[in-house]
Specification:
With 134 residues, the protein is mainly alpha-helical. The chain has five helices and two strands; from the N terminus they run H-H-E-E-H-H-H. Helix 1 runs antiparallel to helix 2, helix 1 packs across helix 3 and helix 3 crosses helix 5. It starts with a helix and ends in a 10-residue tail after the last helix.
Length: 134
């Protein structure tokens, strides 16, 4: 639970220009969970710094590892989705366009574009990704 609160605080804090009420609630929750950890002898999860409870280095490193893995996965997923959708919509047939307007739907053919980028990024990363000048 402490790790979950830390992850939320990290992600939410990175998104907020001003740390709003929602962020403050989770910051308070994190502090509360740190106190519970201290009261129950979970010393491997906490340390004191300038008289204040903070997550241990080990727990902080785990948080960084998880957020790094998540960011990496989100990057590739977003690239595949955006580029695949872009390329698919460049080739939409009039029948597909008509059907897609009726419902929120992509034809099975769209998967070919996602698969193309998935394979490309698995094999080459961004090495062959370039911006062409007109």
């Amino acid at each position: 639970m402490l790790l979950a609160a830390m992850l939320y605080s990290f992600i939410r804090g990175g998104l907020a220009d001003d740390k709003g009420e929602d962020y403050k609630k989770y910051e308070e929750l994190e502090n509360y969970l740190l106190k519970i950890a201290e009261d129950n002898g979970f010393n491997d999860l906490i340390e004191k710094f300038n008289g204040q409870l903070i997550p241990s280095d080990e727990l902080s490193e785990l948080e960084e590892e998880i957020t790094s893995e998540y960011d990496d996965d989100a990057l590739w997923s977003e690239l595949i989705t955006r580029l695949g959708r872009r390329d698919f919509f460049r080739t939409v047939t009039p029948d597909e366009d008509k059907e897609m307007k009726k419902r929120d739907w992509l034809p099975d053919r769209a998967q070919e574009f996602f698969d193309k980028y998935n394979k490309e990024f698995e094999e080459h990363g961004v090495e062959r990704l370039e911006i062409k000048e007109n």
